[in-house]
Amino acid sequence: MGEEKEEKFEGTTLGADAGRTIDSDVDALIQGALKELDTHKKDKPAEKALSATHLSPPSHSAPPPSSSSPAASPPSSPKPMPAPTPSPISPDDAAYSKNAPKDIQVGDIVEGVVLKVDLTGALVDIKSKSDALLRKDDFSGTIKVGDKIKVMVERLESKEGYVVVSQNRAEEHLKWDHAFEAYRRRSVLEAVVKSAVKGGLLIDCKGIRGFIPASQVDKAPETPLEEFVGKTIMVKIIQVDPRQGKIVMSHRQAAGEKEKIDTQKIFEELEIGQVKKGRVSSIKSFGAFVNIGGVEGLLHLSELSWKRVKHPSEVLKVGDEIEVLILGVDRKNRKVSLGYKELQDDPWEKAAQTYKPGQIVKVKILRFVKFGTFVELPGNLEGLVHISEISQNKFENIEEVIKIGDTVDAKILRVIPEEQKIGLSIKQVGIDREKAAVNKEMEGLPSENKITIGDMMAEKEREKAEEDEGDTGE
């Protein structure tokens, strides 16, 4: 009998390791152990077993028996033990992964690896005690074994013992997080306009549905909202309300922000000597402003053409698309100087080969100055006819002799390419022609009747002097 009791006592030690027992069973075991102690006071193993039967509180399991303790068999009519319940995950558990999420709770978003996919859904390893069940209705698109996905914990344990998760809810939650972060940082986002409705635009911003009031759309008053449908625009979130599922955005604010960002980037990349494409944005009396990707540069009047220009409108008009040369960049004051004529052939480089002193050319009268008149030569070059070289006759006003726009013959007196100067004479053309006419007349006269050119010129001077005296007398 003593041996049977000993076996019974040892059997209860194993039962304690298997799980927790109800209070009545614990009390019965303790009473049996005490009786066994009285019968076998000298039995040391029983004393050790008695010590083991002092169970820790119900929330903890008793330690497993030593491998050196004698093997025990259950009693002939053992009382059924309740099914074991899983104990909380402990970092000391050998099966616990160091990468396992701690204290997983409903609503947490965790990353996992897809282990299995079938018609009902997928199993996902989320580094927890048990795998996660992702039902087919809780994810969109396609997933395959080995994919890393983010899921939201919906239930800690299903009937099958799995953690129940949802990829759709995780994505929705992350979208709202992204919206809050963009709102906090006042970030500029890209959005696609889905439709135009009364009062504004409905847009999609990487899965985030939003609304842009008409007052926040950057457009001309006459432009209809329907023109934006299907286009990608820049927006900024100005209101987030997850309870009502509402996100309000602004196109107007984003347009200004994007322009500032782009302008700053382009300005930092500008270097002297670069050739850039731009658009003439405005014309002033002193030059033209050219927009280079959002940066406004000044094209000074003197840089428009190799010939003198009175007003920029003579060369350019608003809206012209042109190429310009970067002449200067003032990063401190944010100013850019541009050149236009430098990208055109410099006619002065070949001026010395094209024009020679004594050559007669046709010129166009451009403008009058106190000391003469500027004329345009073929090849977009300008020359000066000094007031003393305009006419052989006396005059009070240049317009008495020539007018702006007239085309006349002029004789080249000098060419100075390095100073971009060409001196001409209109008067000398007349003198040369008169000499040629006199020579032609003299060719048909007998030798005894010939007179010198000097005589003829003196006679002409005498006639002019008489005419002048007559005018003065009147």
TrEMBL record:
The keyword Nucleotide-binding appears for this protein: no
Record keywords, A-Z: Ribonucleoprotein, Ribosomal protein
Pfam assignment, any one: S1
Residue ranges with Pro residues bias: 60-89
A molecular-function term among this protein's GO annotations: mRNA binding
SUPFAM superfamilies: Nucleic acid-binding proteins
Lineage top rank: taxon: Bacteria
Signal peptide interval: none
Cellular component GO terms, alphabetical: cytoplasm
Record GO biological process: translation
Region Disordered, annotated ranges: 1-22, 37-98, 454-474
Residue ranges of every copy of the S1 motif domain listed in the record: 107-168, 186-252, 273-341, 358-427
Biased composition (Basic and acidic residues): 1-10, 37-47
Family: Belongs to the bacterial ribosomal protein bS1 family.
Function: Binds mRNA; thus facilitating recognition of the initiation point. It is needed to translate mRNA with a short Shine-Dalgarno (SD) purine-rich sequence.
Record's protein name: S1 motif domain-containing protein
Annotated source species: candidate division WOR-1 bacterium RIFOXYC2_FULL_46_14
